[in-house]
Amino acid sequence: MKKMILPLFAIVMLASCGGADTSGGKTTEPVAEKPKDPAYDKGLALVAQNDCLTCHKINEPFTGPSYSQVAEKYAGADAAKIKEISEKIIKGGTGVWGSALMTPHASLSQEDAEAMVKYILLLKK
Ligand code: HEC
Q: Candidates 40, 55, 103: which one to mutate for ligand 1, based on the most atoms within 8 Å of Cβ?
């Protein structure tokens, strides 16, 4: 019986040690990782399917502002602001970033336009 106790003790020590290591890893992970927002994938797919990238690039201004500039400008945008920007994509517009014109995207639904805006806002550096 006595012979059993020592190996058992060693196993318990090892297990608790390993446990401490994993929990240490777990506490740092969510901080290092970007929060996974489902809007990101949906918006990215829609931007790729539409003509957005003929005028917008992610990091450099093109015909329109870069998406990272847009994300910077509207950081912390609330639902009302997201709605307003989405309506502009649908209706088209000019004057905020310069004199170039964004063409209307009348066939887009409000929901899809908002998904794209949410994706763009996640591109903040
Ligand atoms: C014909 C070129 C063109 C296309 C196509 C285009 N954009 Fe734009 N976009 C612009 C221009 C130019 C501006 C800046 C308008 C301004 O200064 O008010 C702009 C501005 C924006 C803004 C910022 C709006 C604001 O008021 O600050 C967003 C967001 C945006 N576009 C998203 C999109 C999305 C999403 C698509 C695809 C559905 C798209 N754009 C397609 C040219 C374009």
A: 55
